[in-house]
Amino acid sequence: REVDARIIGAGSRGPITEKLQTAYFDVVAGKNPDYIQHLTYIN
């Protein structure tokens, strides 16, 4: 990727992005009980 003709990053997730993404997916999948009250399940 690039912005204003400058290459940004190496094209892969960095360690911080990986931790944030893992935490997010755990919350939305109901795998983190600390945030289960924020989920609304639908059929």
Describe this structure in words.
By secondary structure, this protein is of the alpha+beta class. Helices cover 33% and strands 9% of the residues. It has one helix and two strands; from the N terminus they run E-E-H. The protein has one helix at residues 15-28, and strands at 2-3, 6-7. Strand 1 and strand 2 (6-7) form a beta hairpin. It is elongated.
The number of E-state strands comes to 2
> Which structural class best describes the helix and strand composition?
alpha+beta
The end-to-end span amounts to: 39 Å
The major β-sheet equals: 2 strands, antiparallel
Number of helices: 1
Whole-number total of structural domains:
1
State the low-pLDDT regions, or none. Answer: none
| Helix and strand pattern | EEH
Helix content: 25-40%
* Mean of residue pLDDT values: 92
Shape: elongated
Strand order of the largest sheet: 1-2
Strand content: 5-15%
Task: Please describe the structure with a list of short key phrases separated by commas or semicolons.
43 residues; alpha+beta; two-stranded antiparallel sheet; 1 helix; 9% strand
Summarize the structure.
The chain has one helix at residues 15-28; strands at residues 2-3, 6-7. By secondary structure, the protein is of the alpha+beta class.
Which SSEs are present, and which pair or pack?
Layout: E1 2-3, E2 6-7, H1 15-28
Antiparallel strand pairs: 1-2
